[in-house]
Amino acid sequence: MNFKGVIFDLDGVITDTAEYHYIAWKDLANKIGIEIDEEFNETLKGISRGESLERILVKGNKENYFTQDEKDELAKSKNDYYLTLLEKLTPDDVMENILETLKHLKENNIKIALASASKNAPLILDKLELSSFFDVIVDPTSVKVGKPAPDIFLEGARLIGLNSSECIGVEDSEAGVTSINDSNMLSIGIGSETNLQHANVVIPSTKILKDTISNLMV
Ligand code: B16
Ligand code: MG
Considering only CA atoms, which of 106, 108, 125, 128 is closest in space to residue 116? Predict the structure, then answer.
Protein backbone atom coordinates (compact mmCIF):
# COMPACT_ATOMS: atom_id res chain seq x y z
CA MET A 1 0.00 0.00 0.00
CA ASN A 2 1.26 3.44 -0.90
CA PHE A 3 0.94 5.30 2.42
CA LYS A 4 1.86 8.98 2.26
CA GLY A 5 1.16 10.18 5.79
CA VAL A 6 1.40 9.10 9.42
CA ILE A 7 -0.85 10.65 12.05
CA PHE A 8 0.33 10.29 15.62
CA ASP A 9 -1.39 10.42 18.96
CA LEU A 10 0.77 12.15 21.61
CA ASP A 11 0.16 11.00 25.18
CA GLY A 12 1.31 7.40 25.51
CA VAL A 13 2.84 7.26 22.01
CA ILE A 14 5.41 10.04 21.71
CA THR A 15 5.95 10.51 25.43
CA ASP A 16 4.56 8.93 28.57
CA THR A 17 2.48 11.85 29.79
CA ALA A 18 -0.37 9.33 30.20
CA GLU A 19 1.19 8.59 33.60
CA TYR A 20 1.17 12.30 34.53
CA HIS A 21 -2.50 12.62 33.54
CA TYR A 22 -3.23 9.69 35.86
CA ILE A 23 -1.33 11.22 38.79
CA ALA A 24 -3.14 14.57 38.37
CA TRP A 25 -6.63 13.04 37.94
CA LYS A 26 -6.11 10.72 40.92
CA ASP A 27 -5.13 13.68 43.08
CA LEU A 28 -8.18 15.69 41.96
CA ALA A 29 -10.52 12.70 42.40
CA ASN A 30 -9.19 12.09 45.93
CA LYS A 31 -9.90 15.70 46.86
CA ILE A 32 -13.57 15.27 45.96
CA GLY A 33 -13.86 11.84 47.58
CA ILE A 34 -13.66 9.63 44.50
CA GLU A 35 -11.28 6.67 44.13
CA ILE A 36 -9.83 5.89 40.72
CA ASP A 37 -7.41 3.12 39.80
CA GLU A 38 -5.23 2.30 36.80
CA GLU A 39 -7.89 0.12 35.19
CA PHE A 40 -10.37 3.02 35.25
CA ASN A 41 -7.64 5.35 33.99
CA GLU A 42 -7.36 3.23 30.81
CA THR A 43 -10.88 4.43 29.92
CA LEU A 44 -9.75 8.08 30.16
CA LYS A 45 -6.89 7.75 27.68
CA GLY A 46 -7.53 9.85 24.58
CA ILE A 47 -10.62 11.42 26.19
CA SER A 48 -10.76 15.23 26.50
CA ARG A 49 -10.24 17.02 29.82
CA GLY A 50 -13.90 17.97 30.30
CA GLU A 51 -15.21 14.54 29.35
CA SER A 52 -12.62 12.83 31.60
CA LEU A 53 -13.92 14.87 34.56
CA GLU A 54 -17.51 13.89 33.70
CA ARG A 55 -16.52 10.19 33.68
CA ILE A 56 -14.82 10.54 37.06
CA LEU A 57 -17.90 12.25 38.53
CA VAL A 58 -20.17 9.49 37.15
CA LYS A 59 -17.84 6.88 38.69
CA GLY A 60 -18.26 8.56 42.09
CA ASN A 61 -22.04 9.10 41.64
CA LYS A 62 -21.41 12.85 41.78
CA GLU A 63 -22.47 13.81 38.27
CA ASN A 64 -25.09 16.26 39.57
CA TYR A 65 -23.02 17.54 42.45
CA PHE A 66 -21.25 20.50 40.86
CA THR A 67 -22.26 23.53 38.78
CA GLN A 68 -20.57 24.03 35.39
CA ASP A 69 -18.42 26.81 36.89
CA GLU A 70 -17.29 24.46 39.66
CA LYS A 71 -16.51 21.74 37.11
CA ASP A 72 -14.46 24.23 35.07
CA GLU A 73 -12.57 25.07 38.25
CA LEU A 74 -11.94 21.36 39.01
CA ALA A 75 -10.67 20.76 35.45
CA LYS A 76 -8.44 23.83 35.73
CA SER A 77 -7.02 22.66 39.03
CA LYS A 78 -6.22 19.23 37.50
CA ASN A 79 -4.53 20.94 34.57
CA ASP A 80 -2.52 23.28 36.84
CA TYR A 81 -1.12 20.24 38.67
CA TYR A 82 -0.51 18.44 35.36
CA LEU A 83 1.42 21.49 34.08
CA THR A 84 3.73 21.36 37.11
CA LEU A 85 4.45 17.70 36.25
CA LEU A 86 5.19 18.72 32.65
CA GLU A 87 7.89 21.14 33.86
CA LYS A 88 10.16 18.11 34.29
CA LEU A 89 9.73 17.06 30.66
CA THR A 90 12.89 17.09 28.48
CA PRO A 91 13.90 15.51 25.14
CA ASP A 92 15.04 12.49 27.20
CA ASP A 93 11.35 11.74 27.76
CA VAL A 94 10.67 10.98 24.09
CA MET A 95 9.69 7.32 23.91
CA GLU A 96 12.09 4.78 22.46
CA ASN A 97 12.48 4.72 18.66
CA ILE A 98 10.17 7.76 18.14
CA LEU A 99 12.97 10.11 17.04
CA GLU A 100 14.30 7.49 14.60
CA THR A 101 10.77 6.93 13.27
CA LEU A 102 10.16 10.66 12.71
CA LYS A 103 13.55 11.10 11.00
CA HIS A 104 12.90 8.09 8.77
CA LEU A 105 9.48 9.45 7.74
CA LYS A 106 10.93 12.89 6.96
CA GLU A 107 13.74 11.37 4.85
CA ASN A 108 11.10 9.53 2.85
CA ASN A 109 8.90 12.62 2.37
CA ILE A 110 6.04 11.15 4.38
CA LYS A 111 3.71 13.77 5.87
CA ILE A 112 3.50 13.84 9.66
CA ALA A 113 0.53 15.08 11.70
CA LEU A 114 -0.44 15.08 15.36
CA ALA A 115 -4.00 14.15 16.38
CA SER A 116 -3.95 14.53 20.16
CA ALA A 117 -6.94 15.33 22.35
CA SER A 118 -4.58 17.42 24.47
CA LYS A 119 -4.77 21.21 24.49
CA ASN A 120 -1.22 21.07 25.90
CA ALA A 121 0.15 19.26 22.82
CA PRO A 122 2.07 22.22 21.27
CA LEU A 123 3.78 22.90 24.63
CA ILE A 124 4.69 19.22 25.07
CA LEU A 125 6.15 18.91 21.54
CA ASP A 126 8.21 22.06 22.17
CA LYS A 127 9.58 20.68 25.44
CA LEU A 128 10.48 17.43 23.66
CA GLU A 129 12.09 19.47 20.83
CA LEU A 130 10.00 17.63 18.23
CA SER A 131 7.76 20.42 16.89
CA SER A 132 9.73 20.86 13.65
CA PHE A 133 8.95 17.28 12.54
CA PHE A 134 5.21 17.93 12.40
CA ASP A 135 3.59 19.35 9.27
CA VAL A 136 0.37 19.80 11.21
CA ILE A 137 -0.87 19.77 14.81
CA VAL A 138 -4.64 19.40 14.82
CA ASP A 139 -6.31 21.77 17.29
CA PRO A 140 -8.58 19.43 19.30
CA THR A 141 -11.01 22.30 19.93
CA SER A 142 -11.51 22.65 16.16
CA VAL A 143 -13.29 19.29 15.81
CA LYS A 144 -16.89 18.73 16.81
CA VAL A 145 -16.56 15.37 18.54
CA GLY A 146 -13.53 13.94 20.33
CA LYS A 147 -12.14 10.39 20.26
CA PRO A 148 -13.56 7.71 19.81
CA ALA A 149 -15.25 9.67 16.96
CA PRO A 150 -13.04 9.79 13.83
CA ASP A 151 -13.14 13.61 13.46
CA ILE A 152 -9.65 14.44 14.77
CA PHE A 153 -7.87 11.88 12.53
CA LEU A 154 -9.99 12.92 9.53
CA GLU A 155 -9.04 16.54 10.19
CA GLY A 156 -5.36 15.55 10.39
CA ALA A 157 -5.57 13.87 6.96
CA ARG A 158 -7.41 16.86 5.50
CA LEU A 159 -4.81 19.32 6.81
CA ILE A 160 -1.91 17.35 5.28
CA GLY A 161 -3.86 17.10 2.02
CA LEU A 162 -4.29 13.31 1.95
CA ASN A 163 -7.18 10.85 1.78
CA SER A 164 -7.50 8.91 5.00
CA SER A 165 -6.82 5.65 3.13
CA GLU A 166 -3.34 7.04 2.37
CA CYS A 167 -2.58 7.49 6.10
CA ILE A 168 -1.51 5.32 9.01
CA GLY A 169 -2.71 6.29 12.52
CA VAL A 170 -0.73 5.46 15.67
CA GLU A 171 -2.47 5.26 19.06
CA ASP A 172 -2.14 3.81 22.56
CA SER A 173 -5.78 4.13 23.64
CA GLU A 174 -8.86 2.05 22.99
CA ALA A 175 -10.85 5.17 22.06
CA GLY A 176 -8.06 6.38 19.77
CA VAL A 177 -7.81 3.10 17.82
CA THR A 178 -11.59 3.24 17.25
CA SER A 179 -11.16 6.81 16.03
CA ILE A 180 -8.47 5.72 13.51
CA ASN A 181 -10.45 2.68 12.32
CA ASP A 182 -13.61 4.73 11.78
CA SER A 183 -11.65 7.31 9.80
CA ASN A 184 -10.69 4.49 7.39
CA MET A 185 -6.95 4.64 8.13
CA LEU A 186 -4.75 1.71 8.97
CA SER A 187 -4.35 1.59 12.77
CA ILE A 188 -1.25 0.72 14.75
CA GLY A 189 -2.02 0.16 18.43
CA ILE A 190 0.79 0.46 20.96
CA GLY A 191 0.20 -1.49 24.14
CA SER A 192 -1.68 -4.57 25.19
CA GLU A 193 -3.70 -6.85 22.89
CA THR A 194 -6.38 -6.92 25.59
CA ASN A 195 -7.34 -3.26 25.08
CA LEU A 196 -6.26 -2.85 21.50
CA GLN A 197 -7.37 -6.01 19.72
CA HIS A 198 -9.42 -3.87 17.30
CA ALA A 199 -6.22 -2.30 15.86
CA ASN A 200 -5.00 -3.54 12.46
CA VAL A 201 -1.54 -4.04 13.95
CA VAL A 202 -0.66 -4.19 17.67
CA ILE A 203 2.90 -3.78 18.95
CA PRO A 204 3.78 -3.97 22.65
CA SER A 205 5.88 -0.79 22.70
CA THR A 206 7.28 1.94 20.44
CA LYS A 207 10.63 0.05 20.27
CA ILE A 208 9.78 -1.47 16.88
CA LEU A 209 7.63 1.37 15.51
CA LYS A 210 9.99 2.46 12.73
CA ASP A 211 10.33 -1.08 11.33
CA THR A 212 6.59 -1.71 11.72
CA ILE A 213 5.75 1.41 9.69
CA SER A 214 8.47 0.67 7.11
CA ASN A 215 7.11 -2.85 6.57
CA LEU A 216 3.60 -1.47 6.04
CA MET A 217 4.89 1.00 3.47
CA VAL A 218 6.51 -1.51 1.09
P1 B16 B 1 -5.33 17.98 28.13
P2 B16 B 1 -3.88 11.99 23.54
C3 B16 B 1 -5.21 12.92 25.64
O4 B16 B 1 -4.11 12.96 24.80
C5 B16 B 1 -4.93 12.10 26.88
O6 B16 B 1 -4.77 10.73 26.54
C7 B16 B 1 -6.07 12.23 27.84
O8 B16 B 1 -5.80 11.49 29.01
C9 B16 B 1 -6.27 13.71 28.17
O10 B16 B 1 -7.36 13.90 29.06
C11 B16 B 1 -6.53 14.48 26.88
O12 B16 B 1 -5.42 14.29 26.01
C13 B16 B 1 -6.69 15.96 27.11
O14 B16 B 1 -5.49 16.50 27.53
O15 B16 B 1 -5.98 17.99 29.46
O16 B16 B 1 -3.83 18.14 28.16
O17 B16 B 1 -5.99 18.91 27.14
O18 B16 B 1 -3.69 10.62 24.09
O19 B16 B 1 -5.07 12.16 22.63
O20 B16 B 1 -2.59 12.58 22.96
MG1 MG C 1 -2.79 8.54 23.88
Answer: 125
